[in-house]
Design goal:
With 210 residues, the chain is of the alpha/beta class. It has a domain of 133 residues: Rossmann fold, CATH 3.40.50. The chain has 5 helices and 13 strands. The strands form 4 sheets. It has a 6-stranded parallel β-sheet, with helices on both faces. Strands 12-11-13 form a 3-stranded antiparallel β-sheet, with no helix packed on it. A hairpin with a 2-residue loop joins strand 11 and strand 12. Helix 2 packs parallel to helix 3. 33% of the residues are buried. The mean pLDDT is 90.
Length: 210
C-alpha cells in the first residue's frame, strides 16, 4: 500500500494599524473553530500588558483565554498532536525564531493564525511580519478609521506627551506618557520620512548574501 502523504497545515496573517480590529478578527476565527469542536491553542506576547495577561483581548472587550510568553519554544511545548489550530496575537513582538516555529507547526498540519502590526509607528515593516506576510496562505489587511478626519487609516501614529513621536525614538518606550491613534496617509505625522528604496536594497542584499 502506498504511503499516505502527510497533510500540511496553513498560515493566515491578520495585519493592520492600531484600532483596525486585528485581535477582534483573530478571536472571531478562533471562536468559530471552537464552535466547530476544533482543538484551539491561543498565545500572545507577554509584552502586551494593556489588559488581562491570561487573555487575548480586543479593544471592544472581547477576550479569549491565552498563554502569554516571549519565548517561541514555549509555544511548541503547549501545542500537542491533538491541537488543530494555533492562534498568536501580537506576533510582531516575538524574536525572529517565531518564523521557524510557525513553519514547523504548519508542516505538522496545524492551521496557524497570527495577528500583528505590519508597520511600526515610523512606517517601517515590523520585525518578522514581512517574512510571515510573504509566506502566508492567506493575508487579511485591515484598516482603521482616521481619528483626525474619518477616512480609512492604515498608519499608527504614536503621540508622546500629546505630540507626534520622533522617527529616531525607540520602538518601545518605558516610563513615557504615550498613546496611539490610527491615521490616514494625509494625517499621519513623522519628522523624517522612511527611505523605502534603501530599505528594499537592504532586503535585497540580505537575500543575495543568504
Amino acid at each position: 500500500m502506498a504511503n499516505e502523504t502527510k497533510k500540511r497545515g496553513s498560515l493566515e496573517v491578520i495585519c493592520g494599524s492600531m484600532f483596525s480590529g486585528k485581535t477582534e478578527e483573530l478571536i472571531r476565527r478562533l471562536r468559530r473553530a471552537q464552535y466547530a469542536r476544533k482543538n484551539v491553542a491561543s498565545f500572545k506576547h507577554s509584552l502586551d500588558k494593556r489588559r488581562e495577561i491570561e487573555y487575548v483581548s480586543s479593544h471592544d472587550g472581547n477576550k479569549l483565554s491565552a498563554i502569554a510568553t516571549d519565548n517561541p519554544k514555549l509555544i511548541r511545548q503547549f501545542v500537542t498532536e491533538n491541537t488543530d489550530i494555533v492562534g498568536i496575537d501580537e506576533v510582531q513582538f516575538f524574536s525572529a525564531e517565531i518564523v521557524d516555529l510557525i513553519l514547523e507547526l504548519v508542516n505538522d498540519g496545524k492551521r496557524v493564525i497570527v495577528a500583528g502590526f505590519d508597520l511600526d509607528f515610523r512606517g517601517i515593516p515590523m520585525s518578522c511580519m514581512p517574512v510571515l506576510l510573504a509566506l502566508a496562505d492567506n493575508v487579511t489587511k485591515l484598516k482603521a478609521i482616521c481619528m483626525r478626519c474619518g477616512k480609512e487609516a492604515r498608519f499608527t501614529q504614536r503621540l508622546t506627551n500629546h505630540k507626534p513621536a520622533k522617527f529616531d525614538d525607540p520602538l518601545i518606550l518605558i516610563g513615557a506618557e504615550e498613546c496611539y491613534e490610527a491615521r490616514c496617509r494625509d494625517c499621519y505625522e513623522i519628522d523624517k520620512q522612511t527611505n523605502y528604496t534603501a530599505l528594499a536594497r537592504k532586503y535585497e542584499k540580505q537575500q543575495l548574501d543568504a
